[in-house]
Design the sequence.
């Protein structure tokens, strides 16, 4: 009975998710028009363009978000609910039960500097796709199949570029978590979660069009995606961002001390 009730709720959410667009599907796609809200998250924008979320980018309730992430990307209910809770804080209204994609544009709440594909808020527009910024990220994607090292290199480069040029550069530990999730998202949605790989062409198509890459052969994941999957890929990216290499096996104890002295007195 409980499962039946949940299914009924989710079905109702789907029926109302896109009142200005029609039935959600991979084939149905329409970019934002006049009066439609979009935010800094290319995935939520994409789901709205396909109608899995409201095409106008408004009134994203828990049920609508859970259903949209499930129908579009096969996220499980608990993960969809968690994603909603994370986004809800961007709505400044007290006791809000929904958010809009425009709410997500509030700087330093969820949106952050050093995005993979957006300009920093300091320069005026922090939510529209910026091809110049994205080209800087892609410069570190050097093979047809991206791995976590290439993705991490692009992330690190964007942080260095942003810090060097933006006098208001801000990047807290919580923003680091959002950034890691941003970098991990294409692997989770379009790639190999177990090995942290994804076809470069799928990722570029997604970012540049804010459209699911069905035209390139992508299909909705068959396996339900959970928080465990998100955490797995995020941790891969986190580890890949470290610029410290492992010590060679068999290195002698005390070598660090000698190296330090050598560096000081050369």
Sequence:
């Amino acid at each position: 009975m409980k499962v039946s009730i949940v299914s009924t709720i989710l079905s109702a959410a789907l029926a109302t998710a896109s009142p200005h667009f029609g039935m959600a599907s991979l084939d149905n796609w329409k970019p934002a028009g006049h009066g439609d809200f979009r935010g800094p998250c290319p995935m939520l924008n994409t789901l709205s363009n396909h109608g899995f979320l409201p095409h106008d980018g408004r009134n994203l309730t828990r049920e609508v978000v859970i259903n949209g992430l499930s129908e579009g990307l096969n996220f499980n209910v608990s993960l969809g609910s968690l994603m909603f809770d994370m986004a809800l804080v961007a709505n400044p209204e007290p006791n809000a039960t929904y958010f809009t994609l425009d709410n997500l544009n509030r700087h330093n709440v969820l949106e952050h500097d050093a995005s993979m594909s957006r300009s920093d808020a300091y320069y005026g527009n922090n939510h529209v796709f910026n091809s110049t910024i994205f080209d800087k990220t892609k410069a570190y994607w050097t093979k047809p199949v991206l791995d976590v090292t290439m993705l991490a290199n692009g992330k690190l480069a964007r942080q260095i570029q942003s810090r060097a040029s933006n006098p208001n550069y801000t990047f807290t530990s919580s923003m680091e978590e959002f950034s890691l999730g941003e970098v991990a998202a294409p692997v989770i949605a379009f790639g190999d979660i177990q090995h942290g790989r994804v076809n470069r062409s799928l990722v570029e198509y997604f970012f540049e069009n804010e459209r699911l890459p069905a035209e390139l052969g992508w299909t909705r994941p068959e396996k339900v995606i959970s928080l465990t999957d998100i955490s797995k890929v995020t941790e891969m990216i986190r580890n890949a961002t470290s610029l410290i290499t492992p010590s060679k096996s068999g290195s002698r104890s005390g070598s660090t001390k000698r190296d330090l002295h050598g560096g000081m007195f050369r």
Remarks:
- The chain has a mean pLDDT of 89.
- Residues 1-106 form one domain.
